[in-house]
Every structure is written in structure tokens, then in C-alpha cells.
Amino acid sequence: MMRPIIIALDFKNQQICFDFLNRFTHPEDLFVKVGMELFYFEGPSIITKLRKMGVKVFLDLKLYDIPHTVEKAMEQLGRLDVQMTTIHAAGGSEMIQAAKRGLVAGSKAINGTPAKLLAVTQLTSTSEAQMQSEQLVSVSLKKSVTHLAKLAAANGADGTISSALETPLIHEAAGNQFLCINPGIRLKNNSTDDQKRITTPAQARELGSNGIVVGRAITQAEDPQAAYQIIKQEWEG
Ligand code: C5P
């Protein structure tokens, strides 16, 4: 897989989503991320529509449940022919394996290629102090992230989603083949919004990132296509 720029379609409904995509000359060439907000309102048909257009889809639903439930849910997502999807690594080895089995079975049913299975380690909104006092995890945040990345890799996940700042650590722990997909991307003159551990596209590339997720820096830009091109140039170096 090429190192994609994935646009986070954090919109309320499909109308706003397609109005946005149609501002691009070639929306079919885009790789987008659909999260809970859009998916829970529009349902699977939004994915079918995007795939019919030719758009590549990262369906980010961060599954976390007992292995059997996750396996069956992933089988359904596998049938949607998405290119990437997510689970929480904290669900454990059996859940991660079950997620992979489900994805493979679902994509086989449609003669497709299984989506890359990405694991969330610690949410980027979790601080070290919070992790220690609320999850009773007594190691450092870095240690927990590395541990969960290794667990994910050993049980069939294809990568993780994390801040680009954690990419070198994760590659070191899980190998350079393990995909590090990184949100929290801002251009130098962008507002940081609610993100804390941010990098520019160039920094993400230098840190070894295998793909970046960009939301507001493109979706809220006056000219989204121009913003996308600037990010692409910086990302490709
Ligand atoms: O607008 P912005 O570029 O900050 O959007 C980043 C996207 O990446 C959002 O959809 C957000 O939910 C997602 N994300 C994140 N941090 C993670 C995982 C996902 O920002 N650890």
C-alpha cells in the first residue's frame, strides 16, 4: 500500500460529506476515513456509496468487545470492502485474533482483499496520570503503548493508529513492516484545535509514518483541494 493521506470525513450526514467530496476535481482518487459520527447516522450505505465512487475507505469504529462479538462484527465490516479498520488493542490477544478472522472471512465472502487491521493502543486523549490512576496501569504511557503495539502485532493486527511522535517507538517494538498510521497532523500555520501531540506532514514522514490522517486542516479549509495539495507536497517531500 502506498503511503496515503487519509481525509477524516468528520461530518454529520452524507449530504455534507458528498458536497465536500465534490469540491475535488477527482474525488475518486481520495482515501477517506469514516468514523462513528457519520457511520452511526447513515449506516453501511454511506460506505457502499463511497466505494462505488472508487474512494478508498478507512472505517474507524474502534471495536472493543468479547472475541466472538468482535469476530462477527468484523465479518460484516469485511463485506463492506473497506481498506482499513480499527479495534482497541486492550481487548486482548484473543479479541485481536478474532477481529482478524472475521475481517478475512467477510472479505472472502465478496472476493475482496481484507482491510488492514489497525489497533488503538492508548487513546491520544489519555494522559499518563489518567492511565495510571484510572486503568491502574503503573508503567509509563510509552511503555504501555509499546506493549500494546507488540501485542497487536503478535496477534495479527497490521498496524496501529497513534501520534506520529510514537511511530519510531512502535516501529522499533513491532518492526518496520507494522503500519503506523498517524492523525494529529497540522501545517505550521494551522490552529491545533483540541489536538495535543501534533506534527506537520514533513515531520510525520521523517518519523517513518506509513500514512497520515488529516481532518480539519483540509475539511475546514476555504479551498480543501488546495489544502490537500499543500499537505501532499509536504508529505511526499
Ligand atoms: O481534524 P483532525 O485532523 O484533528 O482529525 C483527526 C481525526 O483522526 C479525527 O477523525 C480523530 O477522531 C482521529 N483520531 C485522532 N487520534 C487518534 C485516533 C483517531 O485524532 N488517536
In short:
With 237 residues, the chain is of the alpha/beta class. It has a single domain (5-236), classed as TIM Barrel (Alpha-Beta Barrel), CATH 3.20.20.70.
Q: What would your notes on this structure say?
A:
With 237 residues, the protein is α/β, with parallel strands linked by helices. It has a single domain (5-236), classed as Alpha-Beta Barrel (TIM Barrel), CATH 3.20.20. 44% of the residues lie in helices and 16% in strands. Strand 7 (179-182), helix 9 (201-206) and strand 8 (211-214) form a beta-alpha-beta unit. Helix 4 packs parallel to helix 5 and helix 7 packs across helix 8 (167-174). The longest helix is centred in the middle third of the chain and has 17 residues, at 93-109. The radius of gyration is 17 Å and the shape is globular. The model has no long low-confidence stretch (mean pLDDT 96).
What is the share of helical residues? 40-55%
Hey, roughly how much beta strand do the residues contain? 15-25%
Radius of gyration: 17 Å
Question: Strand sequence of the main sheet, in spatial order?
Answer: 1-2-3-4-5-6-7-8
| CATH hierarchy class name | Alpha Beta
Major sheet: 8 strands, parallel, barrel
CATH superfamily descriptor:
Aldolase class I
